[in-house]
Amino acid sequence: MSQIHVRAQPGDVAEHVLLPGDPNRARHIAQTYLEGATLYTDHRQLLGFTGTYRGVRVSVQTTGMGCPSAAIVAEELIRLGARTLLRVGTLGGATPQVRPADLVIATAAVPNDGTTRQLLGGAPYAPAASFEVVEAAVQAARAQEIPHHVGLVMTEDAFYASTPEHARLWASRGVLGFEMEASAIFLVAALHGARAGCLTACSNDIGDPQLVPDDVLAAGVDRMVRAALDAIVTLDGK
Question: Which GO terms describe its biological process (predicted)?
């Protein structure tokens, strides 16, 4: 049956799904990288498309901004048959070592959000990416010679609450940057025995209120998407 928010039928959604937050990015990915992409839902502007990449069936599903929306979408995608969920988005860098448009491959997400706390009843937990997804993403980045970093991200709810001091504190604890969906996606996938990962392109340094130039970020997003899709090809059938 169709889900409440992701209005799709079983069979519409591929086993492997890319998860951008932005519906425009979902449309761009589908039109630019996938062959034969068709729209299976536009309910609530949570645009979802399914096509193929190098012969592998892939869906691209909008999550919206933040963990509450991302958790709903992840849950419903798994009910519709998805087994690999791979977030593709942007993050604010916690340290100048993460340069504009660099690729960040998350191993785990510090859960500074309310959604995971509610799902876990406040129990301590470390939402982590699936090892095989991280491994496939790193292999893809290396093969394409994409500048990248591998490690912790922090998932937060309040976009404008982060300060340079907050960023540098968490950078000293190993956090590479801040984003808004990974912890919930990792947790929901783990609760249902699915795989999950998160690739992001750095859109700005938290100490700098300006985003990187549009053309620079677009190039970083392109590299991120190509790495994510090649990772899915590696994961297909495993």
Answer: nucleoside catabolic process
